[in-house]
Amino acid sequence: MLQLLNNIQHKDLRVIIQRGAQWGDDFMSAPVTADEFRKLQAHYPIVFQRDDKGGFVPAVLFGLQDGQNLFLSDQGWDADYLPLSVQRLPFSIGIADDELRMMVDMDSKRISQGAEGEAVFLPQGGTTDFTENANSVLRALHEGMQATTDFIQTLMTHDLLESFVLDIERPDGSHGQLVGYYILNEERLAALDAGTVALLHQADYLQPIYMAIASLSNFTKLIKRHLAREA
What pTM value is reported for the model? Predict the structure, then answer.
């Protein structure tokens, strides 16, 4: 249940910041922005998913099947960078009185029922540093998503995305497959004329393109994590 965050209704609200399945982190993917690709590519495969408008949304994979996050351990989240869409939970951006406002999901497992977690408001009603930081994350996510829309449109214009199937061989010889995602087509990218490449460079799109391609090497690590869990 999304509610408009306010210091009256939510004056005692606390949010758990630890990472784990018990706090709702057991998801296999998360949407990301092109601005994040450089940080993301060190840890996760960057792929693209179809959206309900006929376009694409970039995402990172944490697992190879629904409900699987292979980066969760007893110590928390085993990576140095979390996507903004994960960092911002349980908050989101909504529109109230034609303005962007901070919303909170009261059904989130991160909502503390006691004294545990970070306070959202100060005793006198002001926002805490935790909430200010969450607001900054939301702003960065919102602006990044808007910029990513143009990036995706450019990739589609030049037909640079292709579907792919990841084949996973288990120790017993059986196979599993990951389907439904798209990656950048390196052959089509290499065939672009100099003028198009120059336009991609001017738009600052070349770096995220190459970061997305480089990130695919993380599939090997992800499969190793997956097989280690199955062992």
Answer: 0.93
